[in-house]
Amino acid sequence: xxxxxxxxxLLWAAASVGAQQIPKVDLVYPAPAGSAFxxxxxxxxxxxxxxxxxxxxxxxxxxxxxxxxxxxGEYLSTALRVVGADYPFQEVQATLTxxxxxxxxxxxxMIQVRxxxxxxxxxxxxxxxFPMYVFHELxxxxxxxxxxxxxxxxxxxxxxxxxxxxxxxxxxxxxxxxGTLGYSDILKTWEDLNRTERTPEHKRAWDIVQAxxxxxFVDELKLLRKRPVVSAPAPKL
Length: 237
Known about the structure:
Blueprint: H1 2-15, E1 24-28, H2 36-39, H3 41-45, H4 51-83, E2 91-97, E3 105-106, E4 109-112, H5 130-142, H6 144-149, H7 152-156, H8 162-180, H9 184-196, H10 200-211, H11 214-221
Parallel strand pairs: 1-2, 2-4
Antiparallel strand pairs: 3-4
């Protein structure tokens, strides 16, 4: 019963703020050989990209875009409504990569997709998790002013690593969005993956968020309101 009422309260909180500007997110991976970054991967990282992986990403680019289009908008709208602040850009491009040893990142915005590919010879991740990788990196950019402007929660956990601190508000938004939308199965799989297969900083951030209630995170996130929205220039590929 408690969980039922808590979910109703979360839904009410998400809906109580006016509609925010939802950015248009385009996934890019130029033919015929992928991005400039992936073409330079061997020089940058001293690793090797298999041509079959590049071919699979090029073939599946519409699928990845469709996966994001199906759930990305509702993820973003739920997060932005509860915070009450627009995303800082109206349009963004996320470059896909299969360069080994390179993680997804928010700036520059790149999404590592090797774990979703059959051509690697390893068991692929469930494609339902793909939108969360994109959402995660978009939220890093969204909450960045909190890192710059100060945060009581970051001060409370000042002994933690910078990486852990940078994950805190992002993880809370992930839990809030998936819980509010009723995607308990995706939430469990996403949390398990972050706790067992990603860095110790990911796991620690989930531990901290689990120990705190969502209210102090949301109160700090609401400080992002009234931030101006600008159009991001398209990167040169």
